[in-house]
C-alpha cells in the first residue's frame, strides 16, 4: 500500500517577507499559487495542516515604533493586521485550488474571519480543512514565530515547519561570512547558546518545553513545502 505520511498534524509557518518573492509587490501571486498547490496535494494525502502567516512583507512593528508618535503596542497592532491580509490572500489561493480553508484571528475581526477557538480549529483540521491563524498571538511584543509555537502546542501539532527565505540555519551569518555552513541539525540549547538565527528565543523555548521539533527550510525552492509536509529531511532540524 501507500506509505503513510510521517506527520499527521503540522503547523506550517510562512514568513510574510517570503511571500513577496522577488517581485516588486508585497505579495507575489505566482508564489502564493505555487504554495497553495503544494499544500493542496499534501492536504489531499490526509495531512492536517494548520498555518501561521507572518506580516513582514507589509509591516513590522519594531521597525515603526517611535515613528510619528507610534508606540510599540500600536505599531504591533498594525503588524498583526498585516498578517491577516496575508492570511486572507492565502485563503483565496488555497480555495482556488479546491482546499477548504478557514481563517481564525487572534483578536476579533468577526466580519472577516472566525475568532480563534482552539477546539473549533481542531475540528476544522479533523475535517480536512486548512486553518490559517491570523493576527499572531494577538499580543504586541510577540512574533508570528511565537504564535506558530503557541498554536502548535495548543492544537497538538507534531512539528513546526518554518518556511522562510533562507535554506536553513547556518553556524554564522552567511551574508557576512563566506565560510558559513548550513547545519543539518541543531539542538534547542545550541540555538540559544550560539545565538543562532532560527526563531526568537520565546518561540524556541516554547517549542523546547513542549518537545515540538522545528524544521527551517527555504520556501522559494519548488517542491520544498511538499517535502517538508511529508517529513523529508530538508533544511535544518531543531530538536533536543
Ligand atoms: N506581531 C505582534 N504579535 C504577534 C505576532 C506579530 O505584535 O503575536 C506583529 C509585530 O509587529 C510583527 C508583525 O506583527 O513585526 C509581523 O509579524 P512578523 O514580524 O512575525 O512576520 P514575519 O517575520 O514572519 O514576516
TrEMBL record:
This is Uridylate kinase. HAMAP family: PyrH_B. It is found in: Cytoplasm. Pathway: Pyrimidine metabolism; CTP biosynthesis via de novo pathway; UDP from UMP (UMPK route): step 1/1. It catalyses: UMP + ATP = UDP + ADP. Its main location: cytoplasm. Keywords: ATP-binding, Cytoplasm, Kinase, Nucleotide-binding, Pyrimidine biosynthesis, Transferase. The keyword Cytoplasm applies. Residues 9-218 form the Aspartate/glutamate/uridylate kinase domain. It comes from Selaginella moellendorffii (Spikemoss). Belongs to the UMP kinase family.
Amino acid at each position: 500500500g501507500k506509505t503513510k505520511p510521517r506527520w499527521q498534524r503540522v503547523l506550517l509557518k510562512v514568513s510574510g517577507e517570503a511571500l513577496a518573492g522577488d517581485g516588486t509587490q508585497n505579495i507575489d501571486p505566482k508564489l502564493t499559487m505555487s504554495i497553495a498547490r503544494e499544500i493542496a496535494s499534501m492536504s489531499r494525502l490526509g495531512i492536517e495542516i494548520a498555518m501561521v502567516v507572518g506580516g513582514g512583507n507589509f509591516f513590522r512593528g519594531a521597525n515603526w515604533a517611535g515613528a510619528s508618535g507610534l508606540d510599540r503596542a500600536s505599531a504591533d497592532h498594525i503588524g498583526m493586521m498585516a498578517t491577516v491580509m496575508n492570511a486572507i490572500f492565502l485563503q483565496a489561493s488555497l480555495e482556488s485550488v479546491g482546499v477548504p480553508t478557514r481563517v481564525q484571528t487572534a483578536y476579533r475581526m468577526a466580519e472577516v474571519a472566525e475568532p480563534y477557538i482552539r477546539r473549533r480549529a481542531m475540528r476544522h483540521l479533523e475535517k480536512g480543512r486548512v486553518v490559517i491563524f491570523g493576527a499572531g498571538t494577538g499580543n504586541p511584543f510577540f512574533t508570528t514565530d511565537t504564535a506558530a509555537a503557541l498554536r502548535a502546542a495548543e492544537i497538538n501539532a507534531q512539528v513546526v515547519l518554518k518556511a522562510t527565505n533562507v535554506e536553513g540555519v547556518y553556524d554564522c551569518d552567511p551574508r557576512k561570512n563566506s565560510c558559513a555552513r548550513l547545519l543539518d541539525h541543531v539542538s534547542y540549547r545550541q540555538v540559544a547558546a550560539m545565538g543562532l538565527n532560527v526563531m526568537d528565543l520565546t518561540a524556541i523555548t516554547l517549542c523546547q518545553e513542549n518537545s515540538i521539533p522545528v524544521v527551517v527550510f527555504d520556501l522559494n525552492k519548488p517542491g520544498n513545502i511538499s517535502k517538508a509536509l511529508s517529513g523529508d529531511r530538508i533544511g535544518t532540524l531543531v530538536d533536543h
